[in-house]
Amino acid sequence: MALDNIKELCGENYFVFGTNTKKFKTYVVGVGGEGIVYRISDSLVAKVPYYQHEIKKLHHERRMGLELSLAGVAVPRQKGIVEVDIPSSSRSLALVMEFIEGQKLTRIKNRKIMETAIKSMEEEIAKARDYFFIPKDYGRHNSIFVANENQTYLIDFSDWRRAQT
Ligand SMILES: Nc1ncnc2c1ncn2[C@@H]1O[C@H](COP(=O)(O)OP(=O)(O)OP(=O)(O)O)[C@@H](O)[C@H]1O
Ligand SMILES: [Mg+2]
């Protein structure tokens, strides 16, 4: 997918790194072990891997995300793998997905909220297992709680597998 398609994905409110800097703010919403997650519009983020040769992993994550969505597990809606411009770098392929506006479980301070968030996380993990997913590297660091929905969303499926059924 070319850069122009980002406009289609994000509508008028899109952000392409290195352009439109006056109109839109770049947000780095997360720095992970495998890449940087940028906010590219009101509702979307782009996960840009550190190593572009790891594109296969990104495709795997996208596939897992799609399958988890179909199974009814709470995960960010996937948009696609697109080419983006990143600051002081060349074009790069990124996984574009829904921005989950919430709190990472590792950051929740309130005990009651934490209990609710963990229960919801465990329900989503159990649901995934029911559908023969094999979760890896999951837990509070890869879960985001959305308070007004009372719902935890799982993120980061690059190491997940699905059992052959
Ligand atoms: N869809 C999303 N909505 C909101 N924030 C997100 C989203 N995806 C990722 N993030 C943020 O970006 C961080 C890094 O994302 P992610 O865990 O997918 O990357 P990673 O490089 O695979 O991380 P890890 O260090 O766990 O291997 C997350 O911890 C989270 O804070
Ligand atoms: Mg992670």
Please, could you describe this protein's structure?
The chain is an alpha+beta fold and 165 residues long. The protein has two domains: 3-98, Phosphorylase Kinase, domain 1; 103-162, Orthogonal Bundle (Transferase(Phosphotransferase), domain 1). It has helices at 3-10, 55-70, 111-130, and strands at 27-31, 35-39, 44-49, 78-85, 91-98, 103-104, 133-134, 143-146, 151-154, 161-162. The strands form three sheets. Strands 1-2-3-5-4 form a five-stranded antiparallel sheet, with helices on both faces. It has a three-stranded antiparallel sheet with strand order 6-8-9, with helices on one face. It is globular. 33% of the residues are buried. Bound molecules: adenosine-5'-triphosphate and magnesium ion. Magnesium ion (MG) binds at residues 32, 141-142, 156.
Features:
165 residues; alpha+beta; Transferase(Phosphotransferase), domain 1; 28% strand; binds adenosine-5'-triphosphate; binds magnesium ion
Give the structure's gist in a few sentences.
By secondary structure, this protein is of the alpha+beta class. Helix content is 27%, strand content 28%. A 5-stranded antiparallel beta sheet has the order 1-2-3-5-4, sandwiched between helices.
